[in-house]
Amino acid sequence: MNIGLIGFGSMGKTHAYAIHNMKYFYSSLSYDAKITAVCAAHYENAMTATERYSLGEARHSEDDIIGDPTIDIIDICTPNIYHYETLKKAIAAGKHIYCEKPLCVTAAQAEEIAGLAEKAGIKGQIVFNNRFMTPPMRAKQMIESGQLGRILSFRCDYLHSSCMDVNKNAGWKQNRDICGGGVLFDLGSHALDMAVWLCGRIKSVSGRGQIAFPARRGIDGNEWNTNADEAFYMICETESEAVGTVSASKIAIGTNDDLSFEIYGERGALKYSLMEPEWLWYYDGARAGGELGGIGGFTKIECGGRYPTPGGAFPSPKAPVGWLRGHVESYHSFLTAVAEDKTTNPSFKDASHIQLVMERAYESNQNGGGMLTC
Ligand SMILES: NC(=O)c1ccc[n+]([C@@H]2O[C@H](COP(=O)([O-])OP(=O)(O)OC[C@H]3O[C@@H](n4cnc5c(N)ncnc54)[C@H](O)[C@@H]3O)[C@@H](O)[C@H]2O)c1
C-alpha cells in the first residue's frame, strides 16, 4: 500500500515513524505499506522530509498526491481548517484516508464527510490514538465484560500547561481562524472520544470556555488578542444516563500531557493517567474492606506494552513504555561520541568495574557470603 502524506509537522513525522517502524512491532503483517509521496505548506520542507527520512518523493501540492493513481492511502496531517477540502478530494479520488483529529471544524462538514466516505466505500479512520494505549484498551475490555456494572459517573480531563507562558507566540492551535476552535478541538476532542468510547454516546452537554490570557503575541510575534478557548469544561450526560465532566486545558500549570479518567460504576471503578501509562487502577466493589482495610481498595493492573498478538512480541510486554526510546538515546550517545570524537558514556572502564563487582559477588557467594574488596 502506497501512502501519500499531506503535512509534515509534528504529526506527519509521528505517522511516518509509525509506518516506517511497523515491521519491528508486529510478528506478522498482512500488508506492505510505505510512504511514497509527501507535501507540506512549503515544497522545501517536503524535500527535506523525503531526503532525511527516505519517504519517497516530495510533491508541490496535495493535488499532486491525491491525483496520483499509484497512491492508495491519503494521510492528512495538516491544520484543522484544511481537513474538510482535502477529505472531499481524497474521497472523490477513491482513496482510503487516515486523518488527524478533529475530522473537520463543523458538525455539518463531519457528517457530510462520513456520508461521502460510506457512499464511496473507502476506509476512513480518525486518529484518536489514545484509544491504543494499553490501559484504556484494558478498561474497555473490563467495562464490556460487565466488571463495573452500569456506569454511573465519569471524569475525563486532558491537561497541558503550554499556554501559561504569555511571552511565547501563539501557535495555530491557539488561533481559531486556523484551528477552527480552541483547546476544545485540540485536546478536548481526545478527551471526549475517550469518554464516549468507554462510557457511551453523549445525549446532552453543557459547556464553558475560558480565556485566561486575552493579550499575548500572535503567530507573527505582534500583539494579538487570543480568540480561541485556552480551557474548556463540559458536563455530559450519556444515552445510558451516566453523568460526567470532561475538560481540556492548556493553562493547567505543572501538567505535561495529562490525559486522565475516572469511571465509577455500580460494581467497580477505573482510573488512568497517560503520564503513568503502565497502569490501570481497578476497584472491585465485591472485594470487602473491613478491619484494617480487608482486601478492599484499588488494584494497580500492569498494562504497559501488553498488546494483543501479533503486536505483543516486540518490545517484550514486560518492557516499560519508553524502554525503546532509551535504546535510541543510548545508541545516539555512542554514535555522537564516535562522530564528534567525544568520550563514550558509559565507557568500557565503567563496564570493567561492573564486571569486577559481579566476579567478586560470585566469589563471595561461593565462599559463604563474606564482603570482598572490589
Ligand atoms: N493525535 C495526536 O496526538 C495529535 C497531536 C498533535 C496534533 N494533532 C493533529 O494533527 C494535525 C496536524 O498538527 P501538527 O501538530 O502536526 O501541526 P504542525 O503545525 O506541526 O504541522 C502542520 C503541517 O501541515 C503543513 N501544511 C499546512 N498547510 C498545508 C497545506 N495547505 N497543504 C499541505 N501541507 C500543509 C505544514 O507545512 C506542516 O508541515 C492537526 O489536525 C492536529 O489537531 C494530533
Describe the model:
The protein is α/β, with parallel strands linked by helices and 374 residues long. It has four domains: 2-127, NAD(P)-binding Rossmann-like Domain (Rossmann fold, 3-Layer(aba) Sandwich); 131-302, Dihydrodipicolinate Reductase, domain 2 (2-Layer Sandwich); 312-342; 346-374. It is built from ten helices and 16 strands. It has helices at 10-25, 43-53, 62-66, 83-92, 107-120, 134-144, 176-179, 183-199, 323-339, 348-366; strands at 2-6, 34-39, 57-58, 73-76, 96-100, 124-127, 151-159, 202-210, 215-217, 223-225, 231-238, 243-249, 258-265, 268-273, 279-284, 298-302. An eight-stranded mixed beta sheet has the order 8-11-12-7-13-14-15-16, with helices on one face. A six-stranded parallel beta sheet has the order 3-2-1-4-5-6, sandwiched between helices. The protein has a two-stranded antiparallel sheet with strand order 9-10. Helix 5 (107-120) links the parallel strand 5 (96-100) and strand 6. Helix 4 (83-92) runs parallel beside helix 5. It is globular and about 80 Å long. The N and C termini lie far apart (58 Å). The mean pLDDT is 96. It binds nicotinamide-adenine-dinucleotide. Residues 6-12, 39-41, 45, 62, 77-80, 82, 100-101, 127, 129, 172, 186 line the site of nicotinamide-adenine-dinucleotide (NAD). Nicotinamide-adenine-dinucleotide (NAD) binds next to helix 1.
